[in-house]
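Next comes the chain:
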Amino acid sequence: MTQVLLEDETLRDGLQAEQKIFSLEEKIFIYQKLLEAGVRRVQVGSFVHPRIVPQMAETAEFVRAIHGLDDNCLLTALVLNAKGLERAMECGLTHLTMSVSVSDSHSRKNAGVSSEIACRAMEELIRSACHNGITVRAGIQCAFGCTDEGPVHKKSVVDTAVSFSEAGAIEINLADTAGMAQPEDVRALIPLVKNKLPDLSVSMHAHDTSGFGLANMQAAYEAGVRIFDTTTGGLGGCPFVQNAGGNVATEDAVELFDSLGAQTGVDQQKIRSLTTWIYRNLGRNM
C-alpha cells in the first residue's frame, strides 16, 4: 500500500492567528493527542518575534518539554531568519522549514522585503542550517498564484526550487498560500518541479479557500506527491492574504487517502476528537 506522510501543523499554522493563546500545558496535550492518533511529523511552532506572533512565544520551551516523548515522530518548526535558526538549534531541533514567497507583493507584506531579496537571504539561511547539521524543507509560498498579482510564472517557482536545492534543501514545499489553486494548476506545476529535481521530495501545503483543498491534494497525489500539510479541523490560513481560509483538515485528508487506497497511519476518529477539544477551547462550534 502506498504510504502518505501528513505533517500536522495545528500547533503552528493552526493556532498562530487565533486570539486565544494556548498554554504550554494545553500545547503538550495537543501534541500527545497527535501522537496517540498516529501522526509522525509535527510542526511544533515558529521562531518569530513574540510581539508579532504571541501565540508562538513559548516555542522553545515547548520543544524542550516534548523532546524525546516519541522518537518516531519528527519535530519540525518554521524559521525565517538567522535569529530564528539560532533559537531552533539551541533547543535541539534537527529539521526545519524555511519559507519565502515568489509573489513580490505578498513577500513585502509577509517579510517586509521584495521576493528577490527574500529568496537570496533564504538561500544563505539554508546553507547556514545545513552547515550546522540541520535538514531543511524549503517552502515556496504563493506557488500557485497571488491575490494581488494573479498567476505566478511557473518558471519562477521552478527556478526558486532549484536555487533552494542547490543551497542544501532536501524537500521542496509548494504552498497554495492564497488558496487560488485548482487541480489543473497542481497537475501542471508539480511535474515541472519533480522533473527538474528528481532526487528531492516535493510536498504540498493546500489552503481550502475556494473549496478545492482536497481536490488539489488528490491532484498532487496523482502527480507523485506523498507529503502533505494539514491541521486539525482545518484551522489556520495566511494572515497576510485576505479571506485566505484555512488549511485542509487532517481528518479529511486521512479520509481522502483512505479512499484512494493510501496509508497515512493516522486514526481519523482520534483526530476528530482532538478537533472537538480544540474548537471547544476556542469557544467555537464545529
